[in-house]
Specification:
Two copies of one chain form a homodimer. Chain A is mainly α. The first copy, chain A, has two domains: 8-50, Arc Repressor Mutant, subunit A, CATH 1.10.10; 62-187, Tetracycline Repressor, domain 2. Helix content of chain A is 74%, strand content 0%. Chain A is elongated, with a radius of gyration of 18 Å. The interface between A and B is medium-sized, with 32 and 32 residues. Chain A binds a DNA duplex through helix 1, helix 2 and helix 3. Chains A, B: Keywords: DNA-binding, Transcription, Transcription regulation. Chains A, B: Residues 11-69 form the HTH tetR-type domain.
Chain lengths: 191, 191
DNA sequence: GCCAAAACGGATGACTCATCCGTTTCACTG
DNA sequence: CAGTGAAACGGATGAGTCATCCGTTTTGGC
């Protein structure tokens, strides 16, 4: 779904381009706008018109995943044990980063090409803050960890799993979960 | 120090090129062999002759730092409380990664351009194994963490500190230490 | 059906990269 | 110390990538 309403042909091309982008991300191929154009059977200019930079396309590809994460966080806030809630959400976030390769770079980028993506990240940060506050209020988490640490830490977990010489996506997800477990153990305050 | 003994002019140029490489790394500028040539007042071909790829130059720049780390680990093994020894070494490794930007990418690369660098990484892995074994034998560390986890985890810590929107190198080092503290708390088995 | 606006596409110039080869420097020998 | 072959030098250049520009086509309201 493009930002503004698009003409029929434009919408069709937009879709095609995003589909190619998604495919490239899944293959782990870096996004090159010229190649995207060829693969989408579309003129180069069309790609550049919709997505001025590779990052813009990447962020568009990442958007559904980010929205899912935000929705998950909002659901999580509606109740339950603070620690379990936080932990489950973090596991979901780690999984998302491994499963969908477009998410990590968007998280790690200090500034985003798409305003909407920036807003999503902002919302996520706020939600992280609330989840943390709950946990802190319940006295189950190290008071030294702040809202601003959460995205970096999650990026670190995903990155660590990427560096580990695991073979498949399945293994990498398992590794990420294991590393997240270590981290959570370190963040938790024990009785 | 190049691998093979070099002619005087070749040695001079090699040095110049590495110096430029070091400067670029410190500035955070990506290494482009053509620019390196210009900055070192040397022909492009000379650069390519000594360093076929940017990675090769990067690894050469990283070598002293890696050797220092290996030396540190060897010293650490000569005695002391297993937990303290392991912890201190990990803090040194984290610091090195933040201080010297050439180290992280070399760690994270699955395969290295320079055989010597590959060997250094291998030695480091072995030393990590020994430090871990000591800690495990003393019962102070989670038995689920293996030698193969250490480099990825350290990369994760450094990466997380990089993602955190800190301003200076000083702050980033502090953030890395804080994150490493969390991680260590998670790896440690408590009485 | 007609027209203006919107979108299209690919040819093209700017830029980057890495090789090749004619020239220069070095170090060893007599 | 002059001569010589090997080693190293450097920059011109061809291949390849990137992103813009503009003449043509498509769309959708009147």
């Amino acid at each position: 779904m493009p930002a503004a309403p698009l003409r029929k042909d434009a919408a069709r091309n937009w879709q095609r381009i995003v589909e190619v982008g998604r495919r490239l991300v899944d293959e782990g191929t870096p996004i090159q706008l010229n190649d995207v154009a060829r693969a989408a059977s579309v003129g180069v200019a069309t790609v550049y018109r919709h997505f001025p930079t590779p990052e813009a396309l990447l962020e568009t590809v990442a958007t559904p995943g980010l929205e899912a994460l935000v929705a998950h966080a909002e659901r999580a806030l509606s109740g339950g044990d603070p620690w379990t809630t936080l932990r489950d959400f973090l596991f979901a976030a780690a999984d998302a980063q491994i499963t969908d390769a477009s998410i990590s770079p968007v998280f790690a980028a200090p500034v985003n090409a798409l305003p909407h993506v920036g807003e999503l990240k902002e919302r996520l940060a706020v939600l992280f803050g609330k989840l943390l506050d709950q946990a802190r209020a319940a006295g189950v988490i190290d008071p030294g960890v702040t809202q601003a640490d959460m995205v970096p830490l999650m990026c670190g977990v995903a990155f660590a799993a990427t560096v580990h010489p695991a073979t498949g996506t399945e293994d990498r997800a398992a590794t990420a979960r294991r590393y997240l477990t270590f981290l959570l153990e370190g963040l938790r305050t024990r009785a």
